[in-house]
Amino acid sequence: MNRQQFMQAMEIHLRPMDPLERAELLADYEQHFEMGLREGRPEEEIARELGHPIEIAKEALGDRYDAQTPGSDPFYARTFEEMRSQQKKGNRAARNFFTAIGLFFLNIILAIPLGLTLWSVWLTIASLSLLVVAPVAAAVDFLYLGHFEYSELFVSIGVFGIGILFAIATKRVFTAFKLITLQYIRWNQKTMKGDV
Amino acid sequence: MNVNIQFKKGVLELCVLVLINRQDRYGYELAQAVSQHIEVAEGALYPLLRRLVNDGYCTTYLQESSEGPPRKYYKLSDTGRDYMKTLTNEWNGFVRNVANLIEEGTPNE
Question: Which of A41, A193, B57, B84 could covalently link to B52 via disulfide, CB atoms 3.0 to 4.6 Å apart?
Answer without folding.
Answer: B57
